[in-house]
Amino acid sequence: MTANTAPALLDLAPLGAGHFARIEDKVAALMRTRETVVAMQGEALLPLEACIRSAVRPGSTALNIITGPYGETFGGWLRSCGAEVVTVAAPFSGAVTPAQVADALRAHPDIDFVSLVHAEAATGNTNPVAEIGAVVREHGALLLLDAVASVAAEPLLTDEWGVDLCVIGGQKAMAGPAGVSAVSVSARAWERIAANEQAPRRSYLSLLDWKERWIDGGRTALPHAPAQLEMLALEQALDRIEADGLDGVIARHRAASAATRAGVRALGALAPYVIRDEDAAPAATTLRAPEGVDARDVVAAALAADASVPVQAAAGSLAKEMIRVNHYGLDADREVVLASLAAFGEGLRALGVPVADPAAVVRAAGDAWDAVIAG
Ligand SMILES: *Cc1c(COP(=O)(O)O)cnc(C)c1O
Predict the structure, then answer these.
(1) Lower Cβ count inside 10 Å, N or C end of the chain?
(2) Residue 324, annotated ligand binder?
(3) How far is the CA of 282 from the centre of ligand 1 (A)?
(4) How far apart are CA 184 and CA 195, in angstroms?
């Protein structure tokens, strides 16, 4: 016989089609879309790749906007689909401007697809999607938006902004699971995908399979066994955001970003990596290490002071200069931000780097937190 504690994650009643469809509808409400939402049964890179492979074909001209590492990944997929790729890049310390996008569209009238990342958790910047969406709509291209690091951390108005393909994941500000994700697909995008002979069919990457086998049949029978535990966790994350109020969840993430930036400015030695406050992603704050000090040493010293803080060194080529403070979900919290700033202060002092008095840092961060929450 089994042990007397029943394993909580096993022996659940199957997740039926109706329940699955209700979870998709909750996602659609969160994303502010009336278009189709498909809950993809894998991490968010799955729908992102699926969107590009479904909508882009040889002969397409794609505008790929790069403001961090995910944009670079998209460029590779676009090329492998046979698209001509036009690239617009912004420094990781800022955002792309609508004027840059408009210039690229004017210079390349053939552009029929635009890929954009809303917020980049890896580099801590966020882009003005409302304005960029208007420019893209005017041109007539399809717009793909990676909103994984923005959903629930800042406003995401999928339909109002004219986003045709919008991808979210649960693992950042939603404080949900990483193993399932979702994509909204506009009617325009479905037309383009259906007309693309190269779009994946009978494939894990296929959006058309979901359309034909799930959506067109009225979402009454699931095409295969769903990722049940991850879907249930996604629903709990959605329900918690609903109960807390989306505006309040967004305000907490904005307050965490503002307080971290203000606290670091008061501390000295470290500086916000993203220069302008309006370009800073509420989901994660990136910091520049002091001149001559390796960012990885600052992170190690901060974690030695307090191992609980959500602080990490950046990946890849930025590892030496960039530090990341994550504000995902429950870490978008006043005490967590103050603890992170205290850990930086203690860590930097241990490295022999002079920093300001902790009381001044707490005051600056607390005031910035309160100013956001007061609205
Ligand atoms: C986090 C994130 C993803 C998902 O990637 P993981 O590293 O697997 O979590 C996708 N796009 C963006 C912009 C992200 O920040």
Answers:
(1) N
(2) yes
(3) 15
(4) 18
